[in-house]
Structures are given as C-alpha cells and as structure tokens.
Description:
homodimer; alpha/beta; eight-stranded mixed beta sheet; four-stranded antiparallel beta sheet; 16 helices; globular
Amino acid sequence: MALSLQLDRQSSVPLARQIQIHIERLIREKYLAPGVKLPATRELALALGVNRTTVALAYEELVAGGQARAHVGQGTFVAAPAAGESRPAPPTPARIPLDWSRLFSRSAHMAGSRADRRAAVPAGARPLISFAEGTPDSGMFPTDAFRRVLNQVVKSEGTALLQYPPGGDGYPSLRTYLATYLLRFGVEAREDDILVVNGSQQGFDLIARTFIDPGDVVAMEQPTYPRAIDVFRSAGAQIVPVPWDREGPSADALEQVLMRHRPKLFYCQPTAHNPTGLTMTPEAARRVLDVVARHHVPVVEDGFDGSLYYGERRPFPLRALDRDGLVLYIGTFSKVLFPGLRLGWLVAPPPVVERLRAAKQLADLGTSPLIQAAVHRFCERRLLDRHVARIGREYDRRRSTLLEALGRHMPEGVSWTEPRGGFSLLVTLPAGCDATGLLPRALRRGVGFTPGARFFVDGSGDRTARLSFSSVPVKRIEDGVKRLAEALADWRRSGGPRPAPERLEALVV
Amino acid sequence: MALSLQLDRQSSVPLARQIQIHIERLIREKYLAPGVKLPATRELALALGVNRTTVALAYEELVAGGQARAHVGQGTFVAAPAAGESRPAPPTPARIPLDWSRLFSRSAHMAGSRADRRAAVPAGARPLISFAEGTPDSGMFPTDAFRRVLNQVVKSEGTALLQYPPGGDGYPSLRTYLATYLLRFGVEAREDDILVVNGSQQGFDLIARTFIDPGDVVAMEQPTYPRAIDVFRSAGAQIVPVPWDREGPSADALEQVLMRHRPKLFYCQPTAHNPTGLTMTPEAARRVLDVVARHHVPVVEDGFDGSLYYGERRPFPLRALDRDGLVLYIGTFSKVLFPGLRLGWLVAPPPVVERLRAAKQLADLGTSPLIQAAVHRFCERRLLDRHVARIGREYDRRRSTLLEALGRHMPEGVSWTEPRGGFSLLVTLPAGCDATGLLPRALRRGVGFTPGARFFVDGSGDRTARLSFSSVPVKRIEDGVKRLAEALADWRRSGGPRPAPERLEALVV
C-alpha cells in the first residue's frame, strides 16, 4: 500500500508532523480502517520524496498517540479506536454545500432512495422461522460441482474469457445451449434471438429503456413481482393493474385496460407466479394471447423458470403458444441455479433483440463471459438437469408440507393459493386484519413473512401475505405455521389496534 | 434434453408422423442446431405421454430423410444440412406483423441499433498489425493466479457468494480494500461512499439515469471516450464540448459553457485520457475545479486507473484535489486487471451514493458477489500490485517504442500527443487527409487504427486517428508505423480522392 499525501514544503510545519497530521485525520475520519497496515516507511518515503527517518518519526508519534500500533517485523497498523471515540467524525465540510437533490433526474426521484432493509426481530423473540426469503435454498447449492467447472473453464479458455466480451449478445455456446434448452418448454428461439443479461432484473430494465417513455402506460397483472413494478415506474410509466383470477390474468379485464389505456406493454408471470405460485391455464393463456393480438400489444413474459413446477405436466409458457411473435420472454438462472451469478436471458423477435442489444452495450458492455462459460459447461454436462430434479422434489415437499400445515392450523377466514410453480403462495387474512400490522406480532412469535401490499399495483392487498417455502426446511414449516396462527390469535385477542408497522422485506425476490 | 411438442390426438395424422414433422421443422428453421442430441426415445415418450415405439418410428423417419443420424449406443443427433440447404429458413410468419419501431422509446431511437463491427480486412492484405484495440493485452493476463484465488473463494465461502447479493452496494471487504487503495491516489473515500458496479460503463449509465432528463445539457471534454458520449446522448442529453489544450480541458472554455448552457454535469478523464493519453496538469486541474465550484456543477471523473502512468509522479485525480465534494469518481478493474470480469466502482458524496445505489438495484440487483470476492482476494494478496508493476513497465516500453517510431517514420505535417497515462495516443494527419478515408488504404498495407471522429462530440476530428499501443508487442510496433507511413504515401500519391469509408472499430474502449 502507498499513500498519496500533499506536503507543503514551504510550510514552517515540519514534514514529519505534516505526515502525522494527515494520517491522524485519515484514521479519525475513517478513511483508514482499524487493522489496515500503513505503508512501509521506505515505500512511503520514496513515494513522498522525503527521508525515511521523516516517515519513521511520524509513525512513532502515531504509535505514541495510540492511533497506530507497531508490530516488530510486521509493520505499523491502524489501531482500534479507544472506547468513547468510536463514532465517525463528520466529513470535511465542503466550501459550498451543493443541493444535490435539485440535480436529480425525474427517474431518480421516482426510484427514490429506497433500500430494502431487514426489520429488527424484537429482543427475546424465538429464533425466526422466515417465510420472507423468496430465494432458492443455498443449503442445496451445487457449489462444489460449480467450482470444478469454473476451474476447468478458466484453465482451458480463461484468457479469452477475461478479455472484453467480443459482442454484446453473450457467449455463443451458452446461447446455443439455451436455444435447445428452451425447446423443452416449447419455446422456439434461435441463438440470435437470445440476449444474455445480468439476471431477469436487467431484462426488465432493458425492456423498460427500449419501450417506455415517461407517461406511457404499462399494464401489469396483479398481484405481481414488485421489482418489475419498480422498474417500469422509475422509467416514468403509469401502471394499470389487470387482476388475476383462478386461471390467470382476466382476459376481459385485460381487454378493458387495453382499450381504455392503450398500454405499450403487458407484463405477467404465467408459469410460476410470484407471489401466488399459480400457473396460467392453457385456456386462459390462449384468451390472453387473443386479446393482445387483437390490440397489437406485446407481452413481457417473466418466465422465472418452468423447470420448477409442481404437478403432472410442465406448463407451457405464453411464448410457446404465441403465434404472432408478440411475446418477449425473460428467463433466469437465479431460481434453478445461483442468484449470485446474476445471469439470465431475453428472447425476442429480431428487431427487438437488436435494440435490446444496443441498450445492453450502453448499460454495461455485456455480461461477464467467464460466468457464462462456466454456466454453459455446467449445463452441458447435465449438472443443471440433475440439480433441478433434486431441488424440484425438495421444493415440492416443502410446498405440500406448507399447504397441509395451513389446512391444519389456520383459523376460519384465512385462505391461500395452491402453488403449481415457483417458491411461494399468497395468504389472504381475515377481514379487518392487515399483514403489515400482523408482522410485528408474528416476529415476536418467531415467524416472518412478506406483507402482500408490495405485490399490488393499486395500493390494495393489505390483507395478503406472501409465504415463501423455498428456504424453510420441511421440519420447521409446521412450527412456523403454528406460530403464524398464534400471531393471528394475538391479533384477535387484542381486538386489532395495530402496533407501528415494521417491515421484513430483506431482499424481496 | 426434452422437447415440448403439442400433439393433436384428434388429428388423422399419426402421432409418430406429427413428431417427425415437428422435429423436421425445428431442424429446418435452425431451432435445433446440427450436432445437437435428440432426447432419448424413452424420455421423449414419457414427456409426451406416447408409446416409446412411436418416438422411435419418428426418429427412424428422420434418419431415413437425412435430417438426423443415429449412433449406436449414443443416441440420435441432428445431422449437418446437405450442401445447398444451409441457408436459414424464414421464421414462421406472424399473423399480424407488428411494427415494433412504432413502440420504441425515444431513448431507444437515440441509442439506435448500432453495434460496433469489425471492418473486413481486404483479401490478400498482410497480416494485420492493429493499433485499433484499446484493450489490455490478454497475453499478459495473470489468468492462472486468478484461477487459484477464484477456486479458493468458492471453496471457502462459495455458497454465500452464490446467493443473492445481500445489499446493493457491493461486497464489503472489496469496498474496504478500495477505500485504502484509493488513498494511494489521494482519493479519500469511506467504504460507504463506494458503490461497486459492472465496469465503468455501468458507472456512466447509473450517473446518467440519476442526473439526466431529456433536454438536459452535459458538458464533455473534447476529444473524449465515445461510449460515455453514447450513454449521455441516449439519456436525452445535449452534449456541449469543452476542448482540451496541452494541459487539460480549457478552464476558460469550460466557464463559457457553464455560463451559456448551464449543464447538469461536466465529464472528463484527467489522468489517462482516451484517446490522447494526456494527463491534466495540477494547475489545469485546480483551474477546472475553481470554475465548477463557482458554478456549482458536479464533475464526472472517469478515472480509468491512475496506476498506469508513464512518468515520475503519479498524477492526482481531480477527486483528490476537490475541496467542495463536487467530483463523482469512476474507477475500473478493466484496464489493470481483467475487462471480462466487468468490475468497477463509483465514489460519490452520501446523498448521491444513495441514489446511485437505488438505480443499481433497479438495473440488476447488484454485481456478482463471487467476482467481487475473487478480485478482493487477488488484491489483498498484493497480486494486483505485482501485476500492475509488471504491465506498467511493458506498456511504458510499447509507448516509448511507438513515440520513437512515429518520430522516425511519420512525414511532415503529422503530429501526435505524448501519452502520460492510458493505452493510446492521438495522431493528427496532414491537412486534407481524413482518417476514415485513410483506413482502407492502411488495412491494405496491413495496419489498423481507430478513426478519431468518434471521439469528438461536434463532428470534428476527421483528421485524427487513435493509435493504441496496449495490445501491440514491442517488436511489431515499428513495422506497424512504417505501414501507416506507406498508407499516407499512398494517399498523397492518389491525390486524396477517398474510397468508400470502412470502419475498424471492433470494440472501441
């Protein structure tokens, strides 16, 4: 490590003292964290063009003052702050405090600065059983198998993979693999119709950039995935909801919306709906496709991954039934493999792929070829297929266990969806009970969930709660549901005046 | 592999024939690529709910027709198309051809569908010496050392790293490392002031989203990095140039622009300027900072990486000299390490980081924790420092060799910049000679470069050409410059009527 300091050689303050003062400030203001090793005296002396003893003198003063500690033979390290000194110092005041908010774009104002934060679990509560995490269970990750293929691809073609991505569309072999993979789901796509992206989130974002001008309308199924709502909203779109019935988004309601609002796009998740876990029936899918074809409105199909379905037959994505080339399909490896790779893909007709590719290049010059090559090799060796078979069975067990437990323990007036795909279901609470108000009681009882309002476009959904079963081991599910029933009983007993709302959103995915 | 086919059990067409027709179409229309293995008969029979012999019959017909090949004990594979059959079939016609362009956003129209393509090298030309690639030399990549740390981090914490990124800001240890690393350059940033992004390209993009509304003005140094121009332009900004003189962007011109156009931001690359390789002098930097402070205009500083400098003293980034908190700093691992990781960072004041973080979450939920952890370990073990020392010396040699060769071989009327940082320099051709016109002649002589016009905001720069020395081995540089001199002589002889323009842009970085 080296430090770049600006010394004033004209000053009457000795150079050693200047160095000491500078490093003291860096430590006090937390630019140098406790434990960080200071540069070797020789190195810093060279960098600053001063005598080595000058630096040594400065370090001795720092050690004497308790800001640093010298370890013989190892060097000088930033000391931990003494008790009572641990609060960060205010940053150096700027000469002109700039009013940044005046400079932010409309999109930034719409996006806000919201960061999902985990609600604090009350002190003394039981260890949490959380139905709030809509993530794959990392306990089942095939980490070691992936480590091996990653090691192999770096060995065999690492140098090429670590250079700039040669084109914006993605690693060709991965796209070839995906073209064949998608045929399982009845989705016909050539390699050139596929664009690799950083997870489905980037898919939403590139579609929003490519289609949405401020003031445009986007029709969205309701309930739906909140992070998709956020993206379209921050692009300046007005969101109009199309309610789900048992079979899928209502085609009649959709047609009303298309006629009245002339949206640019219709967004839905037909095969593994988040939060309900429902799957559109083929009949409902055909009705939806008929309506959008009549009104010439493209569909953004968030495909999650059709591999995780619970039932006899894999559902057909809309893209497989679409005869009019109106469906833009988004897929992801985040649910069936590793979310931490940030890897997904878009399937779209040629004129759209061309624009999405240009948007992708502007956004980040392309997805890491290394990650793509590793996932390709993992898939090609059928390791993904084996993994999905294994986790599919386990998620199915968790789902069934949750459904049985709900049937056994939920009081009158509570209903829920029966998932056919995905990681979660949606509970509707008794009239008068709202999920945000129930949450603190539930946390005290040691159970977490995601209040459903976030999944509704129009401010409704207060009475709903998403329970994700993907991350809760089978043997804890029933206990979690019992606790939820206890929390509901608490609520009934207290007659409903609700405590201050808390959030347990962590990362809503 | 499985295939999802929709069979019509009411049809008079036998099921085997339906399967055959379907697969024939998938092959003909290139959804199934040559060499792809068809599903095992048992597997497909199960998936379709038909008898295994039905599938076997369909496969026999495909083999008989030449569309597939059976390998005993291995399975049935898609055959390579017979000669004359190799052009792709037209896609299935849509019932309603949708006019997609009518639906694209203004931003998509501004971004266009430009994809940088490599210009064809004329047949019979000498093997190309290309000064067009502004990329680090992958021949010097520390691939194997990186493979080892990658393997170690997956072993030690892979499961956590492969889950969703826990927050949008980045892997905490990497940000802690960066905070200390940046002190070398005099940049003071706390861990919380740093946001990890997917390369500097995503940095530009997040800044553009956060600050730019259509119609806003962005002041940019000229010449400058074209992909930064593209991002601000596609966000709807009007770009106003501020010319570089020998010392940096002219403070007087900047002040005129700030007064006349009131831009939201000023963008520049002070320490390793692309394309010129120049470095702002400390005096010029102070003048620029004074001007922006007086006019309350934030600076977007594209830091490239201050580690790659050619001279006695590492230049100070603007961020290190800024006393007013007006500089947003973008850094990247793409030049000093691996571009294929897509890893960079932003440093900004707290209210700005908060907005940028929200924009990053909307864009992709965060950068892969795995990549960040691997790079952190690589840095922490001082492998980056050792690597940079090594490549810095080599790039310096290439730079000196290029400068000497230009001095020796360029005719009267040609001038060039003397790089102090970065990967390239900018040549100005004799009056009347334009670089786009010169390029085909140069390619015929076996030398490539990037015409400079792309680096100019206002359509000027026709007479300039960027020569990147980063990817050309020392022993080929002089030969490349001789060829360029030959191409100039060709141009002079032909009296200047120029052939149709060609581009050798590949990936302009």
